[in-house]
Amino acid sequence: MAEKKIPLRKCTGCGEMKPKKELIRVLKTGETEVVLDLTGRKNGRGAYLCNSVVCFQKAKKTKGLERSLQIQIPEELYEVLEKELVAGE
Fold this sequence. Notes:
three-stranded antiparallel β-sheet, alpha+beta
């Protein structure tokens, strides 16, 4: 019997390829709305991050999330996402 293929995604913070289930999806739902998608199933353009504040800060510093989501993210939204990420840990 063939082994089941595990989907891999790249963290926008550290750049490592990891199994999709280990990562958190950041989702662009509308023109300016960006939210955390903990289920990984919502509609919209997604980018993936490791479940750590360090990777989030790297992605913020290098603007990795902005490039992946193709949107300018305001500083207030970064603060909200960081609070949600800390609360989820």
